[in-house]
Design a protein that fits this description.
alpha/beta, Rossmann fold, 36% helix, 277 residues, two-stranded antiparallel ribbon, eleven-stranded mixed β-sheet
Amino acid sequence: MIKDIVIHLPVDRPIEPALDCAISLGKMFGAHLQGLVATYQVINPAIAVGPTAALFAAPTEYNTDPEAANDRLARFVKAANGARIATTTGCVSNTPRNANHTLAAISRLSGLSVVTQPEQARPTHDFFLAETLLVQSGRPILLIPHIHHGPLKTARALVCWDGGRAAARALHDAMPLLRRAQNIDVIAIHAGNARAAEAGMNDLARHMNHYGLPARLHHATADPSDVHNTILSTAADLGSDYLVMGGYGHSQLGELILGSTTREMFNPLTIPALMSH
């Protein structure tokens, strides 16, 4: 069960994609929702966390409008109250990098973080928030495409499997959602030893059967640079509602470095993706 969900509300972009999915998850699991916003500063940053963005409306230079941040929180609370979901709210004020790290730290005490996909054509200060949450929070994220509309659908899941640690973590983090799926597909994408990949998939199928989760197995071949396109193409062909996949990356000298497939998935994402690191 997922009992605590954090939703990261964008201030400079529409909140509906993440909000609609978070509200549907809250109703689905009877979960508590924590709505967070960030008012990003450029000069004289001070790390602070408080109940409203108005707390930070000081004579400091902001790149985020505190009133807009408060509006996002108010809309979140209204939607949650309408669905009879318990909520708390919070605001972080700092430079983009420090604010994102603070948001990741807060998210460590949640079962899931819901965050909107960054937009390549519209960079904002929260552009690296999803990456930071994935690598630094230690908790799964549900990455929502900025083109998404409506509540999260859970009938058809597509699990991406490579036998690695992150994929295994994502599989088990997704179990509360997978138990609600009517159809579970698993895809393994490889360029080499197909026999070894098939054996690994059969082991996975047996493991999932122990949980009462029968899965259909699919194999595909692709160059490393085209794995993300193969995943999204397969999801479209199968009519998948969401993806489950490991997110690969690490922090080096304070900078986030994502694996190539993980980074590419952040760009053309067409359906929600539950990702774990």
